[in-house]
Design goal:
By secondary structure, this protein is of the alpha+beta class. The chain folds into 2 domains: 48 residues; 140 residues, Nuclear Transport Factor 2, Chain: A, CATH 3.10.450. The protein contains 5 helices and 6 strands, in the order H-E-E-H-H-H-H-E-E-E-E. It starts with a helix and ends with a strand. The model has no long low-confidence stretch (mean pLDDT 85).
Length: 206
């Protein structure tokens, strides 16, 4: 009789171990399935399909942290392009300046107002002068926020008789703001100032 009870007890312990093993195995399989499903979802959500010229192209989404220096430099470049690339046309000037002022704070507006008071833009129009700016390099310090930058650029003032080349050096800071159609990178230039803007070469036209 005692032997029979011991056999029942042993069988009961074995059943408990088997049930526990089944539960543990099911839990591991469930966790693994959830993890693989989440990984697959993240991979799928990182794939973006863009329709261009009737063709579907695949793009890969990435974390903004990876692109901050690239976006910051492009923001600085586009601001300087809009602010300094001008033609002898009032609408072109107003259009470019308006785009530039969305990308910076009142320090840029103050510089614009100063140039306007000096009749700088009227002189461009009356003299049929085109102004073109090319950014040569941008120094960007991402170690401290807001991000400090220094921009080196070449400015060309094109007349019918000559072309004046200028060295332009500016500096300022970048802070994060919300993205919009007018400010796609989500940065705002602050405390912007011109350090140098001097003639380097004059080419006389034949």
């Amino acid at each position: 009789m005692f032997t029979h009870l011991r056999n029942i007890e042993t069988a009961f312990q074995q059943n408990k171990r088997i049930v526990a093993l089944v539960i543990l195995t099911s839990a591991i399989i469930s966790v693994a399935a959830i993890w693989f499903s989440f990984s697959a979802y993240q991979k799928a959500s990182a794939q973006i399909y863009v329709l261009a010229n009737g063709k579907v192209l695949e793009a890969v989404a990435s974390d903004r942290k990876e692109n901050i220096p690239v976006e910051a430099r492009d923001h600085i470049k586009m601001f300087h392009h809009y602010f300094f690339t001008l033609d002898p046309d009032e609408k072109v000037i107003q259009g470019n300046i308006s785009k530039a002022l969305y990308l910076a704070d009142e320090s840029a507006r103050n510089q614009y107002n100063g140039l306007k008071e000096k009749s700088y833009y009227n002189n461009l129009i009356s003299g049929n002068i085109s102004q073109i700016l090319a950014v040569d390099s941008i120094q960007l310090n991402m170690d401290h926020y807001p991000y400090y930058f220094k921009c080196y650029a070449t400015e060309k003032l094109i007349r019918s008789t000559s072309t004046i080349n200028k060295l332009l050096v500016t500096q300022g800071y970048l802070r994060n703001v919300g993205r919009s159609d007018n400010n796609p990178h989500g940065f705002l230039i602050e405390h912007w100032e011109t350090l140098a803007n001097r003639d380097t070469l004059i080419n006389n036209q034949p």
